[in-house]
Amino acid sequence: DFTDMIDHAREVVPIAPGHPQTLIVDEAQDLSLLQWDLLRRWARHTTRWIAAGDDDQALYRWCGADFQPLLNAQHRRVLPQSYRVPGAVQAQALLYSAHIRHREPKTWAPRPFTGPFKREHGTWERPEDWVQRLVSWETETKDQTYAFLAPCSYMLAPLIAQLRAAGIPFGNRWRRRRRDWNPLNPPARGMSTSQRIRDFLRPLNRLWTWQELSTWLPLIRTDGVLQRGAKARVLLHAEETRLCTLEDIESLFCLDALAGALFGELPWFEREVLQSKAQAVAYPLRVLQRYGREALDAEPAVTVGTCHSVKGGEADTVVFWEDLSRSQELGIREGGHAADDVYRMLYVGATRAREALYLVQERPR
Question: How confident is the model over 37-49, as pLDDT tens digits?
Fold first, then answer.
């Protein structure tokens, strides 16, 4: 497993791969003691090594991370200036960090912009108003990014359902493996439904390639749409990148269905898709109809995720559901390290904001 690999490297890899002269370790507050030991061994063969981190953002103590070696460093330097966090957001973040008992006090300046900060009443269970507000933000301001964050992943489910129903593209570039957070991205294996739809649309100045046909044609019902044996024939040519001829296309489709396919009509595609595939194509079709084809290719402007998932990330506007899970509430009451972990998580969530921060909570603590 992963721990064995680190332990094995300590014994048989005395010098870091590539024999670097300088070793820089980012997010050092999240290293385990075993990882610290390996890095120290590698550092013996370098001219210098630098560990960069922030103990106020130490979110992985629960799985063995230990930031104390970072604080014990012989030469330490606190970076005095933030290039992300505006003044009003910093003020809230400092309220969180003030509750952390086991920490290194530090002083840093926000960027020279106050930024809007608001506390609002609400709950992650009813995010409809925030989706409507997002639509108005997108209309009023272009080229902005948005992040909807929560302490726990289950708290994002109602929001995701609303975004899908509205046809708003969203994702999480820092957690690509979460398919529910990245529905427009290709899966680890196979092909995304979004790509199949893009292949259906193809540039209208040419016909499909056989390869393109093989991606989306299996989604279409046969009765009244395709000639008998059409799908089997296309699969025989699935690896071919050559263009089909008009005669090829005419031999695959029934006459009444031919025009809708050739002109890339989305209502035709949605009407003729197999019932078993209808749910899978519904969301990317909504995105396409609302934002155009570019939205299927671009990185979404809207990020959804937990505070843990976006550590290191940022967005212009952050909406942060501050309600805690039962275990996190108990951690606050318990105090000590358990409470510290919760306040660090809140600190990370708030400091993702570049311009505006909205803290949403149903009940004040």
Answer: 999 999 999 999 9
